[in-house]
Description:
Layout: E1 5-11, E2 21-26, E3 29-33, E4 37-38, H1 65-72, E5 88-90, E6 104-106, H2 116-120, E7 128-132, H3 133-157, H4 170-173, H5 178-185, E8 195-196, H6 201-208, E9 211-214, E10 220-222, E11 226-232, E12 240-245, E13 250-254, E14 277-280, H7 299-302, H8 306-327, H9 339-355, H10 369-376, H11 395-398, H12 420-430, E15 434-438, E16 453-457, E17 462-465, E18 474-475, H13 478-483, E19 487-489, E20 494-496, E21 502-506, E22 509-513, E23 526-529, H14 534-543, E24 547-554, E25 560-569, E26 573-577, E27 582-586, H15 589-601, E28 605-608
Parallel strand pairs: 3-6, 6-7, 7-9, 13-14, 14-15, 15-16, 18-22
Antiparallel strand pairs: 1-2, 1-17, 2-3, 4-5, 5-8, 10-11, 11-12, 12-13, 19-20, 21-22, 23-28, 24-25, 25-26, 26-27
Main location: nucleus
Keywords: Nucleus
Protein name: Integrator complex subunit 9
Amino acid sequence: MDSLETFTCLSEGKGFYFPPCHILDICGFRVLFDCPMDLSSLSVFSPVPMHANETAEYVGGPESNEGKRSKIEKTLNADSLICAEPRYKTVKNLLLWDVSSIDIVLISSPMGMLALPYLTRNIDFSAKVYATEAVARIGQLMMEDLANMHMEFRQFYGPAESDAPQWMKWDELELMPLELRQLICGVDGTEFGGWMLLYSAADVKACMLKVHTLKFAEEVCYNGTLIVKPFSSGLEIGSCNWNITGPKESFAYVSSSVFSPTTAMGFDYKALQTSDVILYSDFSSRNAVDKFDDDNVTSATLFNDDEYLEEMEKLDFICSCSTDSIKAGGSVLIPIGRLGIILQLLERFALDMASENMKVPIFVISSVAEELMAFTNIIPEWLCKQLQDREGVDASLALLPFKPMAMKVLQCSFLSGMSVQKSHNLLQMLQPRHVLFPEIYRQHITPLETSFSFGYYHENEMLHIPYTNEYTKLEIAIELLCRLPYTTLQKQEIDVARLKGELVVEQGRYKLLVGNERATTQAKPLLHFGRVDLNVLLMTLQKMSMSTTVEEVKGTDGTHTATLVLVTEPRKAVIEVTEAQTLITTGDDNIASLISQAVCSILDFASDQNGP
Length: 612
């Protein structure tokens, strides 16, 4: 059967801080998973300098162009960074879609909603946006903080240029160091169109008015057809995977997830066990070298203490190094954008400082720090989250503006998803019918005999999803079911019943609604099913004292198409028998009635339309 459902990967992302973005077409509705922003690309811009004259040679007019060219052509250094109001890199492929065609937006994490105001401020946008309560609140605070930070750049550089800024012109891009040029344009040069000016604080406020918040496992029905539920992914506070159930089959969207054996709010994989299709979108192990094996898989295989203990050791390491630095008279700066890690470190710092009898101030530098800390006091879920971080952070580029300072740099990477091996173990436990997997993982997969099939998707390529269920379920009231007069067609071994009602879709299920029987005395015709046995029909007509002859009708290619039974006595009539129907033609009502009785008497089934 041809698939009516498609899946398109708009972006594979770059880890925790730039999650993937996809579109799923299901039951005639278009679902967008996440609307992220690539924050790592901000490293191409220079921080706001302390004095205005420090930027003169980089933001000057054409007369300083030669000096700029000479400087940029050198090896990458702090002077190579762009001194201008930043622009922000979004998912370029999403910009190519008509926003009016999107029906639902599902947000999996706070990082997955940072570019949402770009969509919601579009006058053609009318989709429903769903996120967990925690994700919506944290995402709102992050967007407000981003808007406040951007205002500092705008106050320094002045109003934004109406046209493309100087640094976005091709002759300037060609002179930039390769590292910066690839961040701006992408390795293949196709990402240049994704840069946009940041939205305003008013855009953020208007955006949040369109976000519908849910609790874990809370059900919401869209248009009576799709049932949507979020379940904990274990990645961060409020981060979730999504289950979408339609009349035909169910889908599970698995974003970056982390197993936690010691907490109640870890990866809720059991909620995905009834899914027919799994859309796997955890790219955190894109550089993994492990392969799938066919070991016996149990929950103990997935839930163990190793990863959790490693994360705790990383936190201990950071705290230990920080304490040593403070004892030596130094200061500690920790640039972290993950709320779970921030809270864990604050708690550990307080304990370490108390044990060392050290009184050192701790500052959380953010325009929304007060609101963020207040929010964490009313949500205990953060204690149940594993801690993760994105892979591949370019520490050298991020620290480039501060190179003249004497500092010790320590880089620590936290988990941001499951390994390739664990993903396979998970699928073995879930046992879906079909799995969509990133193409980049194909080389790490050893073909195994499984009950489910695999499909592999590329970025910006539409993939058709095969139907996994041959039949569609239909809900019928028990009292109606008991009243149906079933008849079995012997050869097909099918039970058949006739009824009159309305087929509707409610709460993601097909339902048959039968109205009250209309009071009427009008006789209704019988509806008959079955195959006409020609020999039996001729014998029945003969018993009714009818004389008949038989003619075979063939098509132009010589194949049999119908049989004509010609009745000559007592009145003329023609009976045309085909595979699909039996047609009686005569000018005598009595003969027509007798022939009809003869045909009905040899059929397998007859149903009275006056019945249910």
